[in-house]
Design a protein that fits this description.
Blueprint lengths: L16 H7 L4 H14 L16 H28 L9 H16 L6 H13 L37 H6 L5
Helix pairs in contact: 3-5, 4-5
């Protein structure tokens, strides 16, 4: 049995300890979202560095940021809709594939007559519903190490790879009060 502790700022007493532990790894979804925005959505061309804010004033930089976030949420909304229609968990739909589908569809949609847009949207949702991620997400446990030697922690090396843990199984062995 590992001596693991979970510290949280969730103060809702109706959430059980078991629920907190079970959903702890979903917090990484926000890290994945940041990665999708920075390294997928905001990359200008394949192989180039991410888009830099070009505005000269703070207000316009803020406007650019909002545009990026709105676009990201629109993409995620389409993924959610496709998941609902095709009984697919949106977290298991590939953001990169969906983003590319949308980029490819924009020229077609821009010259389409308004009455034809619903059929194109349905077709796009169908493609999105089939865009599975290339490998399933896994529960992660990463050792507490750093890459450079400037700390009391061990230096990171090949033996510090993520390991698989079945948290559902481990939870069953805990006694909750």
């Amino acid at each position: 049995m590992h001596g693991t502790r979970l510290i949280t700022n969730i103060l809702d007493e109706t959430i059980s300890t078991k629920e907190l532990i079970k959903h702890y790894h979903k917090r990484w979804d926000i890290e994945l979202a940041f990665d999708e925005i920075k390294n997928r959505q905001c990359v200008t061309l394949k192989g180039q560095s991410p888009t830099v804010f070009r505005s000269k004033t703070a207000e316009l930089v803020e406007q650019e940021l909002y545009a990026i976030l709105v676009t990201y949420n629109c993409i995620r909304q389409l993924m959610y809709q496709a998941g609902e229609i095709y009984d697919q968990e949106p977290r298991f739909i590939s953001f990169l594939d969906v983003f590319q589908l949308i980029v490819d569809a924009i020229p077609i949609i821009s010259i389409t007559k308004p009455k034809q847009i619903p059929s194109i949207l349905n077709y796009l949702l169908n493609l999105i519903g089939q865009s599975d991620i290339d490998r399933p997400r896994r529960p992660r446990l990463n050792p507490r190490v750093i890459k450079i030697k400037s700390s009391k922690f061990k230096r990171k090396n090949a033996s510090h790879q993520s390991e698989y843990r079945n948290f559902e199984e481990e939870l069953e062995s805990f006694v909750f009060q």
